[in-house]
Amino acid sequence: MIKTIYRLLIELTNRKWSSLLLQKFAMSKTSRLLIPYFIKVYNINMEEAELPYQAYPTLHQLFIRRIKSEARVIDADKFTVVSPVDGFIEAIGKITDETEFLVKGKKYSVVEVLGSASVAAKYTLGTYMVIYLSPTNYHRIHSPVNGEIIGQWELGKHSYPVNRIGLRYGKDPLAKNYRKVTELKYLGGHLAIVKVGAMFINSIDYTYKSTTLQKGEEIAYFSFGSTVILLFEKDTLFLSDPLTKTRQIQMGQTIGYIR
């Protein structure tokens, strides 16, 4: 019953008009009045932001804020892989022969997430990681490795919630949501960065200047909270030990080593 009601409410509100209405408000000067409350409610660390909160003209600009370069340390070792975002690691695991992985007790097909059976095949028996970004987090996305963009595409039309309630009760949120996929070639092989749109606002904007990326280089940003899925090929990533002890992670933090 809870699932049915939850999904009905989302279907009724998750439409183009409601998305545009929310987006228009967040980008309006009026939304600036909510900035102090937004910071307080979500306990946002403004000490690491590039600008004081009074300098942001809209709620949207606060949300996509950049942080000071010294706020994150990027491991320069060419054999390390770092987190592309700040967030909470919802799941880590191995991609099965059936190209499905488990998230919050549900199975999701890699083919559905990537939109291509041929691309998904190369990640069979590899490693996946799902990182959830809450409104508290810094929402810019960075390259986890030194590499070259070899493919980029988008999939899906609507976005369902990608918070923990959405992952539990939603209608295959990570498979059906609007998403942009970036595939990189790097020292270890190939990896896919799947950027999943959040409820109501699907905006995922690219910011990179070249297809050749340096580790830690900014590549995109989310408008409002969302999720990133990382997919690695078989025998290309050795996970960092600390990930078994804590799931809170920051952009630039080492998540593994290239085998």
UniProtKB/TrEMBL annotation:
Q: Which cofactor does it need?
A: pyruvate
Transmembrane residue ranges: none
Q: Where in the cell is it found?
A: Cell membrane
Q: Please provide an example of a Pfam family that matches this protein in its UniProt record.
A: PS_Dcarbxylase
Q: Which InterPro entries match?
A: PS_Dcarbxylase, PSD-B, PSD_type1_pro
Q: Which terms under GO biological process does the entry name?
A: phosphatidylethanolamine biosynthetic process
Task: Consult the record and explain the modifications the protein receives after translation.
Answer: Is synthesized initially as an inactive proenzyme. Formation of the active enzyme involves a self-maturation process in which the active site pyruvoyl group is generated from an internal serine residue via an autocatalytic post-translational modification. Two non-identical subunits are generated from the proenzyme in this reaction, and the pyruvate is formed at the N-terminus of the alpha chain, which is derived from the carboxyl end of the proenzyme.
* Swiss-Prot/TrEMBL catalytic activity: a 1,2-diacyl-sn-glycero-3-phospho-L-serine + H(+) = a 1,2-diacyl-sn-glycero-3-phosphoethanolamine + CO2
Which top-level enzyme class is recorded in the Swiss-Prot or TrEMBL entry?
Answer: lyase
**What does the record give as EC number?**
4.1.1.65
Q: Which GO terms describe its cellular component?
A: plasma membrane
State its role. Answer: Catalyzes the formation of phosphatidylethanolamine (PtdEtn) from phosphatidylserine (PtdSer).
Q: Which HAMAP family match?
A: PS_decarb_PSD_B_type1 (MF_00662)
UniProt lists the family membership as follows: Belongs to the phosphatidylserine decarboxylase family. PSD-B subfamily. Prokaryotic type I sub-subfamily.
| Name of protein | Phosphatidylserine decarboxylase proenzyme
Q: Which gene encodes it?
A: psd
